[in-house]
Design a protein that fits this description.
The chain is an alpha+beta fold and about 120 residues long. Helix content is about 45%, strand content about 20%. It has a four-stranded antiparallel sheet with strand order 1-2-4-3, with helices on one face. The termini are far apart.
């Protein structure tokens, strides 16, 4: 991909390209005919796979109708994407930072329900 960009007179380092691809949540498949990864078919599975691996999800902190997920540095966007993709009905919206995901729910009851679901998924 870097060579293709260079052919169009766009210079980019491999590190920058890798970061940009990660931020865009693009994934590399081995073959065009390969089946999609399980996370694309089932985002809840993706959340289950991501959260416990390599200290990915470090802490879950409730705050009224908000749920704060603390995770490993530079993993906020990936975790937020997994949460968004899971399409939990309790979620009104999410905001991702470098190492934090803020989940907004309509009320305390919805936050508690969501917290229980996420905790059950990552056990």
């Amino acid at each position: 991909m870097r060579r293709g960009l260079a052919a169009q007179k766009l210079r980019v380092t491999q590190a920058t390209l890798s970061r940009d691809l990660q931020e865009l949540r693009l994934i590399k498949l081995r073959k065009a005919t390969s089946p999609p990864p399980p996370c694309l078919k089932n985002p809840r599975l993706c959340l289950r796979l991501l959260a416990p691996s390599a200290n990915f999800l470090l802490d879950i902190r409730p705050a009224e109708n908000l749920l704060v997920l603390k995770n490993a540095s530079q993993r906020g966007a990936a975790l937020a994407a997994a949460v968004d993709g899971a399409k939990f009905p309790e979620i009104a919206g999410t905001i991702a930072g470098d190492d934090t995901v803020l989940i907004i729910t309509p009320n305390k009851k919805a936050r508690k329900s969501l917290q229980e679901k996420i905790e059950a998924l990552v056990k």
